[in-house]
User: What shape does this take?
Amino acid sequence: MADFIDSNELYFLQFKPLYKQRIWGGNLLQKTLQRSDMPQLDPDQEPIGESWEITDRSDAQSVVSSGPLAGKTLRELIEYYGQTLLGGIWQGETFPLLVKFIDAGQKLSLQVHPDENYCREYGDGAEPKTEMWYIAECESRGEILAGLMPRATKDQLIEALNSPKAASLLQRFPSQVGDSYFIQAGTVHAIGGGNLIFEIQQNSDTTYRISDWGRVDKNGKPRELHLDKGIRAIGFSNRVSPRIPAVIGETRFNRKFPLVERHCFNVDCLLLVENYPENTGKLNGSFHLLSVMKGRIKLQSAACGTLEAKFGDSVLVPANCGNYQIQPRDGSATVLKSYLK
Assistant: This one.
């Protein structure tokens, strides 16, 4: 396979986004990130609702956008480089994360994702899906619905699913840029219209839709619901608030805030005002996935070279990179770092 480079020549990797049309899609992705590669759609077509930034699914593969490995899929890279690319902590067969932007022009369906216990018990091809959201941009009308209210019962939820009353049984939060939400599998949730969400999740595409708010498609047909599976998947005992408030105010020094620490993935929020040293741990550690949520950064490494990235970009740092530097380029930058531990 001569078209692959030596593992010691791996570099900071970026991938082409995969754009997905959705009935509830909006225009914040284009307005906020101004991407020139977004498809131009006719008015009668469903709008873009998602941009998959990093994905390793059989039906959706990220493709390297530049450098000697341009055109290679993420799957091909993993098959060839394995733990050299992803680190010794990774023990799977596929990339463990699916990372995307969600552009909600309208409210998404009321839904739930299964956890590991559900998937073991019921099978049926279901994959566990825990996720984290970061609000990259929002309109004044934006809100998040996530987690049942403390006094909401299973019977009340089932009875209300076919009416707007279902929303009153959920915890509701006005959207604010920089807020994060930890959506543990089993949490009932819906993203309100007017949100541009950056989502980091387990590599799963299993969603159980339990209400679509009476919405129909352009042919007047409702989308499929998954009531039996969805109700079984809900963790009714979990009433913890999923919101992680944004850090408000300027900082004069670099700060790191752990947002998610779980067996499936970890996410730190880095608020940077000066050069920030990082280390992947090489073969005893993990890849780093860096996603810029504010400003621009420059990455530097003796092993992986240099790369500049801007708001909306994600960069895969190979595990064998070792020491590298993150330098903010516009005075300050906000970076989400995803990794295994």
